[in-house]
Amino acid sequence: MRILVVGKGGREHALVRALAESPGKPELFCFPGSDAIFEWAQPVAAEGLESLVAWMAAHSIDLCVAGEESYLVKGEGLANLCEKNGIPCWGPPKESAQLEASKEFAKEFLVRNGIPTARATATDTLDAAVAAIAGEYPTVLKFDGLAAGKGVAVCPDEASALDFLDEVFTQARFGPGRVLVEQCLTGPEVSVFAAIVDDQYLIFTPARDYKRANDGDLGPNTGGMGAVASRQLVSPDVLATIEEQIVKPTVKGLRHEGLPYRGFLYFGIMLTPTGPQVIEYNCRFGDPECQAVMPLIEGDLAGFCLAGAKGELRTELIAFNEGWSVCVILASAGYPESSRNGDLISGLENVNNARIYHSGTQRTKDGAWQTQGGRVLAIVAGGPTREAAVTQAHSAADAVGFAGLQRRRDIGILNF
Ligand code: AMP
Ligand code: GLY
To answer: Which atom belonging to ligand 2 lies closest to the Cα atom of 285?
Structure first.
């Protein structure tokens, strides 16, 4: 089997490795990939979406796995183009990927399908947004488009709301678009992933990511400084409620509204005092949650994704380890405001009993690794208990160093 994975970060490194470990020993390719991913998957000579799909067709690719979201909604859409060329794709077509690409589309879908979510109003101008906030703080403002994780502001007061609205409407920082003014919810967050195949689904191991830069969940929002994953993260009761009130009606709604879906769907959920509510959908796995979840998967992930892309949910092909997994992110100097490239990484060879996934690294001419991005490495370890996984992941991460390294010491420990 020949599989091509689309993306280049730590999530895709973890996906590629999990696919590589599938019993069928698939031949792997990755686009655009990274030096670390290319140790497991071959690079692809393509530029842009059309040429990528043409390459897949010319090179007998059996399965395309969408790691990152942007290609799903670019041009005609990755999955749409794959379908045209008869290539099974694990990832939804453009029309369904609007669930992630447009917050307004997602909100209307949630409301239409009676799925619990925060109240929201879509606004076109700064004045309309201020009117919709109606002096109720804290408030949540969301730019209606892909903004690389920077499009959401939880605003405690009017000054912070005006700052964000100024960025969106006056400076057009994310390009043209509307702003959703949303009720601010409270409670612990959980990331729930489902593999959806038409009208069927399989819920993967739930995870939680640590979005803030600093210990104690303080400091600015980041792409994620770590994650913890386990079936035991959420009680069976709460998971059953999430399945009944959120996952099932989502799958039903997609069918009912004629939105085809074969791929991972990520439910960002807040466990509020009145029950779980959806904060967002993402049409892909989370990063860094993927790095924590993948090592818990047993069986044939490649066969599972291929069958799914062809319309068959084969739950018997995979199983989930009941233990815990902890992912510690090592980030470069300046992150998240900026990042620093070119810092030499040491100690990777001393990492024991843990997996190393590369999020942003590059090989130097003499074969060493250096930083190349904000999030640099994910160190992931598992164990039968939360404590065991935490201890192992942090002690493995202690072995790695580079100038300016930033890391949280409470990943897996802090419980929200
Ligand atoms: P998103 O990009 O939609 O994942 O939002 C980023 C983060 O903003 C979420 O992980 C939450 O921590 C926070 N957030 C989003 N929506 C709300 C909400 N309605 N109430 C409170 N916090 C929210
Ligand atoms: N971990 C958050 C995300 O992947 O969007």
So the answer is: 4
